[in-house]
Amino acid sequence: MLFKLPDPDTLYQALLDRDPTYDGRAYVGVSSTGVFCRLTCPARKPKRENCTFYESVADCIEAGFRPCKRCHPLLAEAEADPAIKVLLDALENRPAYRWKEADVARLGFDPSTIRRSFKRHFGMTFLEMARQRRIREGFETIAGGGAVIEAQLDAGFDSPSAFRDAFAKLLGRAPGTLSRQPLLFADWIPTALGDMIAVTSKTELHLLEFLERKALPTELKKLNKFAKGEIGIGKTEISAQIAEELAGFFAGTKATFETPLAYHGSDFTREVWHALRRIPAGETLSYSELAQQMGKPSATRAVARANGANQIALVIPCHRVLGADGSLTGYGGGLWRKQKLLEIERQYLPQRERT
């Protein structure tokens, strides 16, 4: 089951509202201009009778439309916004700087506009992203064997307690309580859709989550109990393998993952996770369809619960499950990210299905 677009009147209203819900899922071809646009395009809105809606860029091009020069539908969404690129470059150049809205204004941007734009594209504001990046600097210092005070300074925190609190909010433990001889190792992995935390042993991947997932601290506490407190920070061959496979996934060169996994769940939950891994990249199922494929058509709700309990994102592709009506439904990493993951995975479909 691929995306089923709503009726044209609904899409036209989304175009008028510049609704980001359908970014990457629907495009409009305008017969009066010969161009095709994102539904969030800032250009003057065309008349309803001049609009035809398509599921993909390929469909628009095949229908004879050329890309709009204002919303740049051929570019990744964030790249189409020059303000985002400027701020991301600034953050990359000064990762430990304590950014404030006044800094955004000094760069010539309206803070409220930037706040909405980053929230729409990345699920977090620029200031939240900057704070996350600072914590990453400290995390990497500790991973390299540095002392907590060094990590605090590298992360740009003046207060030791503020750094401890920020670190504990993310990982569920203060940096000074981490094991020096861990059984499980936490590693920080940047990806095209945001930073992730991977927790591995020397032989298996136990957790892979986006940092913003609200359940992450709880999941880490469960792993901490499993490891009897022996969780630390560091890289393993397994974390290096999953980082490489994630890079290939986002680059469009590798649709499957071969990293060995450790499942922490009941027999039924594990059965659901195995079933999720059988959904090919670029395809989706509803919860009821997944239950039917498992031979348990009455277990739709239990399947949904097991789907939500997944703590190995992307590798166990719970993002490939939609509502019965084709809606995105819930996703711990954020609906905006679920939408983008499915958009990325369309490239893995056979050519005839993409076009």
TrEMBL record:
One of its GO terms (biological process) is methylation. The active site is at C37 (nucleophile), C318 (nucleophile). The keyword RNA-binding does not apply. Keywords: Activator, DNA damage, DNA repair, Metal-binding, Methyltransferase, Transferase, Zinc. It holds the Pfam family HTH_18. Zn(2+) binds at C37, C41, C68, C71. Its cofactor is Zn(2+). Binds 1 zinc ion per subunit. Residues 107-181 form the HTH araC/xylS-type domain. PROSITE patterns: HTH_ARAC_FAMILY_2, MGMT. It comes from the Bacteria. It catalyses: a 6-O-methyl-2'-deoxyguanosine in DNA + L-cysteinyl-[protein] = S-methyl-L-cysteinyl-[protein] + a 2'-deoxyguanosine in DNA; a 4-O-methyl-thymidine in DNA + L-cysteinyl-[protein] = a thymidine in DNA + S-methyl-L-cysteinyl-[protein]. The keyword Zinc applies. InterPro entries: Ada-like_dom_sf, Ada_DNA_repair_Zn-bd, Bifunct_regulatory_prot_Ada, HTH_AraC, MethylDNA_cys_MeTrfase_AS, MethylDNA_cys_MeTrfase_DNA-bd, MethylDNA_cys_MeTrfase_DNAb, MGMT_N_sf. One of its GO terms (molecular function) is sequence-specific DNA binding. It is an enzyme of class 2 (transferase). PANTHER family: METHYLATED-DNA--PROTEIN-CYSTEINE METHYLTRANSFERASE. Belongs to the MGMT family. This is methylated-DNA--[protein]-cysteine S-methyltransferase. It comes from Pelagimonas phthalicica. The gene is ada_1.
